[in-house]
Amino acid sequence: MHYSTQMKARWLVLLAIVLISFLAAPAAADRDGHRVKPPTQEGTDHPLPVVTVTIDSKSTGSVTTTVGDSYAVDSDTMIVQTDGHQVSIRKMLVPCEAEVTYSEENGTRKATRIEIKKVGNNPRWQWTSARPE
Predict the structure, then answer these.
(1) CB 30 within 8 A of CB 36
(2) Any idea of the CA torsion for 62, 63, 68, 71, to the nearest 10 degrees?
(3) Quick one: how far is CA 88 from the chain centroid?
(4) Which residues have a Cβ under 8 Å from the Cβ of 99 and sit 6 or more positions away?
(5) Are 96 and 126 in contact (CB under 8 A)?
(6) Which of 23, 68, 97, 126 can bridge 118 by disulfide, Cβ–Cβ 3.0-4.6 Å?
(7) pLDDT exceeds cutoff 50 at 34
(8) Mean pLDDT of all residues in 72-89
(9) How far apart are CA 65 and CA 114, in angstroms?
């Protein structure tokens, strides 16, 4: 009977530690431990959509996925490499798997943040130029 009571006590202590750890963890935090709110659509409290895609090519004004979806980029677009450092579109390696946070206006998707998760085989910095129709 003594062994059973000791085991119950250990399990309760373990459960309490796990529960306290879970409740004490912030929902999301930046590198300095500050709480981070997900980006929202301007003028609303709705979070911006986030998609996981494979970016196959890029130009100075957009990125294109393997399925042909395109996201506009500009100087306000934050591009984060796998090491956590921010880079410009010119230094972004493709192909890559990435999470793209974007807003949509007048049927155009604009990337507000591109977080690279994995760089593909034979990565390149070169970009494509827009072709005349």
Answers:
(1) yes
(2) -60
(3) 16
(4) 50, 51, 52, 113, 114, 115, 117
(5) no
(6) 97
(7) no
(8) 95
(9) 12
